[in-house]
Write a structure and sequence with these properties.
The protein is 48% helix and 9% strand. It is α/β, with parallel strands linked by helices. It folds into 3 domains: 17-78, no CATH class; 80-365, Alpha-Beta Barrel (TIM Barrel); 405-463. Strands 1, 2, 3, 4, 5, 6, 7, 8 and 9 form a 9-stranded parallel β-sheet that branches. Strand 6 (272-274), helix 12 and strand 7 form a beta-alpha-beta unit. Helix 18 (408-426) packs parallel to helix 20 (449-463). It binds iron/sulfur cluster (2 copies). One iron/sulfur cluster (SF4) is lined by residues 85, 383, 385-388, 407, 410-411, 414.
Length: 471
């Protein structure tokens, strides 16, 4: 049978630096009335176009900024309730042919590189599962010879193939270099969750300045990766910017234009947006980066993204400190990593008490149980949910549910059921008592009566040892 030819988009048609700078310049003239209109719209959970976002990015008036924070908090509570989804990264290979100035894995750095054997992949998976994780982000550098797509597929097969007494890794999101439509098809065929790729910076001159060598230096090819992923049938893609490389206002606006492009072309914008901020790594100095983003600006960036795309998940990693994570959770973050190691084989090294040599230094080093306990203490429901992916709610199906505001009707029951599962499998007596009290308090918050009754029944079954309920 003849193979059906697939589109292979490689040319940028949607990010225009001159246009973005022009929109930002023009937005300086937005009147108070115009900004109030944009904020009223955001408060009705209707999002904001990129031109409206530009006005919010440019305003310096304290009353507007205070309202941006206030609305971001309201959106967060209304759309996501108090559930926070948890995940952890799994680094499988640090071989890399690229020379990214901000990354310790860049090919100019001399250190003993490695990739995990399949036994080691299984060992790391076991350690992640022992922390209670059900959702991971698989991470690898770019290296055609040492880390070809077949190796990544093998890792995914090894991870999905492992079953434990308490369950298994149920969703593997994949963060690997921009690749071909054909390779995205292969990833799609093995059932990945979200394909994640950070643009790092949308500002092409900066992009070329910090990507000194290697295939990643090709701005257009990197930028169009999500077009190819969609062309290959991957419905959920997760974008992000490495804040600290270029002007954050430029980056947020470009991110929103990228989101609009995907939405127009594939009826599905970003499934998630990550907000990593440049942090120290071995072999680089933060002093070389003139656009570092301070805490106050960063909080504003997170809040404005929350206003612009109220239904898009926002992810924060352990790059941020404990204190900063607490603040950003209130402004829009819906998913965080916990107990992370950012090193190949890092979980096994940690178990052996060996010194770490990570891709970047994490600022929140608490273990997963501490983070989960604290989330509960702050009134959140830690969630290990992977239900959407497993019930086929992906791509435009997911987006239509999210945009209709209905997603919270499944998020809360799933959060309560997976927290029950976690408490039974990993919590001590005190933790269980705390978790069950929180679950009891939150059950009445499930608006749909049939769903509430079902969740309550499932929770009782989980307490008796059953596993893996989801809606
Ligand atoms: Fe390689 Fe990724 Fe690090 Fe760049 S950011 S050097 S592509 S691992
Ligand atoms: Fe995420 Fe869907 Fe689970 Fe909600 S129900 S936490 S959107 S997987």
């Amino acid at each position: 049978m003849a193979t059906v030819p697939v589109a292979e988009t490689t040319k940028n048609t949607f990010i225009d630096a001159g246009y973005i700078s022009g929109v930002l310049e023009c937005a300086k003239g937005a009147t108070d009335a115009e900004i109030r209109r944009i904020l009223d719209k955001a408060e009705r959970f209707e999002g904001a176009s990129h031109t409206e976002i530009a006005a919010l990015l440019m305003t310096e008036k304290p009353e507007h900024i205070a309202r941006i924070f206030d609305i971001a908090g309201k959106i967060k509570r209304h759309i996501y309730g108090n559930r926070i989804v948890l995940f952890a990264p799994l680094y499988v290979s640090d071989y890399c042919v690229n020379r990214c100035a901000y990354c310790s894995y860049n090919c100019g750095h001399d250190f003993p590189r490695r990739k995990l054997t399949m036994d080691e992949v299984r060992e790391e998976t076991k350690l992640l599962e022992q922390m209670g994780h059900k959702r991971i982000a698989l991470e690898a550098g770019e290296h055609g010879a040492e880390c070809p797509i077949e190796y990544i597929l093998e890792c995914i097969g090894a991870i999905y193939g492992m079953k434990f007494k308490n369950g298994e890794i149920r969703r593997i999101n994949v963060n690997i270099a921009a690749t071909t439509t054909e390779n995205y098809r292969k990833l799609n065929a093995v059932g990945i969750g979200t394909y994640i790729l950070f643009q790092e910076t949308y500002h092409q001159p900066t992009y070329e300045q910090v990507h000194l060598a290697g295939p990643k230096r090709n701005f257009d090819y990197h930028l169009t990766a999500f077009d190819r992923a969609h062309e290959a049938g991957i419905g959920d893609v997760g974008g992000g910017v490495l804040f600290g490389l270029a002007d954050p206002r430029f980056e947020v606006l470009a991110l929103m234009i990228h989101n609009e492009h995907l939405d127009e072309r594939f009826h599905s914008g970003f499934h998630t947006i990550s907000v990593p901020r440049l942090c120290a790594a071995s072999g680089m100095s933060l002093a070389d980066f003139p656009h570092l983003v301070d805490d106050a600006t960063f909080e504003r960036v997170v809040a404005i993204i929350r206003l612009a795309v109220p239904f898009t998940g926002m992810i924060l990693s352990t790059r941020e400190s404990h204190e900063m994570r607490g603040k950003l959770l209130k402004l829009g973050i819906s998913q965080i990593s916990a107990g992370s190691s950012t090193e190949v084989g890092g979980y096994a090294k940690r178990a052996r008490n060996e010194a770490a040599n990570p891709q970047f230094y994490v600022n929140d080093e608490r273990d997963a149980l501490d983070i989960i306990s604290e989330l509960m203490g702050d009134g959140y429901i830690p969630s290990f949910c992977t239900a959407c992916y497993r019930s086929g709610r992906t791509g435009d199906r997911f987006m239509s549910l999210a945009k209709s505001g209905q997603i919270k009707n499944v998020c809360l029951p799933n959060a309560l059921m997976t927290l029950t599962e976690y408490a039974m499998d990993y919590g001590g007596e005190a933790f269980r008592a705390k978790a069950f009290a929180a679950i009891g308090q939150n059950l009445p918050g499930i608006a749909n009566e049939r769903m509430r009754t079902k969740a309550a029944e499932n929770i009782e079954q989980i307490k008796r040892g059953a596993h893996d309920f989801y809606v």
